[in-house]
Amino acid sequence: MSAATAVDLDTSTLEAQVRGELIRPGDESYDQARAVHNAMIDRRPALIVRAANVADVIAAVNFARDNGVPLAVRGGGHNVTGNGTVDDGIVLDLSPMKGINVDPVNRVAVLQGGCTWGDVDHATHVFGLAVPGGVVSTTGVGGLTLGGGLGHLSRRFGLSIDNLLSADVVTADGGFLTANEDQNSDLFWALRGGGGNFGVVVSFTFRLQPVDMVIAGPMLWHLDDAPAAMRAYDETLANGPDELNGAFAFLIVPPGPPFPEELHMKRMCGVIWSFAGSQEDADKLLAPMREIGPPAFDLVGPMPHPVLQSLFDGIAGPGMQQYWRADFFNELTDEAIAAHVEQGSKVPTIFSSIHLYPVDRATGSVAPDATAYSYREARWAEVIFAADIDPAGNDARKAWVKETWDAVHPFSAGGAYINFFGDEGQDRVKASYRDNYTRLAEVKKKYDPANLFRLNQNIEPAA
Ligand code: FAD
Q1: Could you say which DSSP state residue 28 is in?
Q2: How far apart are CA 196 and CA 73, in angstroms?
Q3: 142 Cα nearest atom in ligand 1
Q4: Which of 69, 233, 312, 367 is exposed most, by the fewest CB atoms within 10 A?
Q5: Which is nearest to 325 in space by CA: 406, 219, 405, 238?
């Protein structure tokens, strides 16, 4: 890291260039502006640039580079490792850049880099359209998309990157490029899964998909039924159409509505289903799940797509001490199920869980080398996370995450979804990109040879 920090530097030129807010230590809004989603991350940047437009982004990138100051780019601030902030460096906060232009006729949306998925769903749902995104409305489009982007629509329409048509990027040299299949196609390939390594994406152009009402909601089972539920879940997805999606979870039932009192604070397993079709067809597809024995809780019914998209917002809010690990899975063998049930019976808090998200069908139909995201043959992306407001139990909760990962990893595909794990070193990053890593390192060398954009799952420039 440079010996100089932004506090030692003359920021008068930057002040003259930037239309957005500059926030420094001591400013009233500093503590709020420096906070990221994971409360375990407590970093003190020297300067926060809240970009109002592309010119601000270019000015901040040039300033950080010319002064040798570490630069953190922040979209929604959800990254568990806290890559959206940095000690003694500059945070380039894109969150004021929320412009969205929806073209419902051509089914295209152009979004600025600071949008969250809630912003996008709000703008597109009115036309009965959606961009396939994440399952919590406050997550940033930027970080989620650049890592891949999985959610309730992944089996039907692929990842967010599979719906990305073009991106406008501010590069490390302060340049401005458009990346798509026709222009700077090497950069476009790398952006689709390579994270924030290649520049600041100031604008994303997405294909819109027809999504309006969905049949969705949770089913829960007692842990005694977990092996049968997991097996039936696997078969239901395997036999079901692309329109059916379901994420499996081990959890502690939150103590409040809509859950009945007798289930409050019980460790259980469950599926959050979503289906594009009729209630009648959903009931037929989900019949095997109800035949295991009636679910202890069953609230699958019609809802507008944005309601599904914000169903977890209450349990996934900011201010939580978070620790995550991850894996991809190709299959759920009996041994894998047994390991999951064993560890799922020890979920530490209501904010902690093991989630399995399907990434087959449309997601799996893309070739592994067609985009930087490599694990196209995997059926699930798993995330194991422990979270709570109280830092006191951090060590015990981290231990549960690590123990769970150790127990299930032998049954995994090897690598993990880069947006689902923390700071676990280069080997884990390489394991997650596999054969695509070498090409990513070459693209990195071309667009960011000095590794200015290094606060991410870092791809080191090729030698
Ligand atoms: P940030 O911390 O702001 O950024 C993350 C990384 O991306 C940083 O390295 C940053 O520099 C870079 N970055 C962000 N924006 C840009 C940009 N415009 N240009 C260049 N680089 C940029 N993932 C899923 O795929 N599906 C989910 O359903 C899902 N749900 C989640 C729910 C919660 C509550 C949380 C905390 C995370 C979830 N994730 C999900 C993981 C999520 O994809 C990652 O945390 C992701 O990094 C968040 O992006 P962000 O923009 O909010 O984060």
Answers
A1: T
A2: 8
A3: 15
A4: 367
A5: 405
- For the entire predicted model, the pTM comes to 0.98
How many helices and strands in the chain, by DSSP H and E? 14, 19
Pocket (CB within 6 angstroms of ligand 1): 37, 73-80, 83-84, 94, 113, 134-136, 139-140, 142-144, 146-151, 195-196, 200-201, 316, 419, 455-456
Find the 395 Cα to ligand 1 centroid distance in Å.
25
Q: What are the residues whose beta carbons fall under 8 Å from the beta carbon of 309, sequence distance 6 or more? A: 117, 118, 121, 133, 135, 136, 137, 151, 152
For residue 40, how far is its CA from the centre of ligand 1 (angstroms)? 16
Distance 418 CA to ligand 1 centre (A): 10
pLDDT digit string (tens) for the chain, length 463 residues: 444 444 577 899 999 999 999 999 999 999 999 999 999 999 999 999 999 999 999 999 999 999 999 999 999 999 999 999 999 999 999 999 999 999 999 999 999 999 999 999 999 999 999 999 999 999 999 999 999 999 999 999 999 999 999 999 999 999 999 999 999 999 999 999 999 999 999 999 999 999 999 999 999 999 999 999 999 999 999 999 999 999 999 999 999 999 999 999 999 999 999 999 999 999 999 999 999 988 999 999 999 999 999 999 999 999 999 999 999 999 999 999 999 999 999 999 999 999 999 999 999 999 999 999 999 999 999 999 999 999 999 999 999 999 999 999 999 999 999 999 999 999 999 999 999 999 999 999 999 999 999 999 999 999 9
CA dihedral 327, 424, 367, 234 (to 10 degrees): 10
Q: What is the distance in A from the centroid of ligand 1 to the CA of 458?
A: 14
Rounded to the nearest whole angstrom, what is the distance from the C-alpha of residue 10 to the centroid of ligand 1? Answer: 31
Residue entry with tokens 């902690």? 352
- Nearest-CA residue for ligand 1 atom 21 is 196
User: Which phi and psi angles does 236 have, rounded to 5°?
Assistant: -60, -40
Using alpha carbons, select from 325, 324, 328, 323 the residue that is nearest to residue 415. Answer: 328
The first and second tokens of residue 4, run together, are 């100089």
> Ligand 1 centre from 235 Cα, in Å?
31
Pocket test for ligand 1, best of 40, 49, 79 (most atoms within 8 A of CB): 79
Tell me whether the omega of the peptide bond preceding residue 258 falls within 30 degrees of 0, making it cis. yes
Among 54, 154, 325, 419, say which to mutate for ligand 1: greatest number of ligand atoms within 8 Å of CB.
419
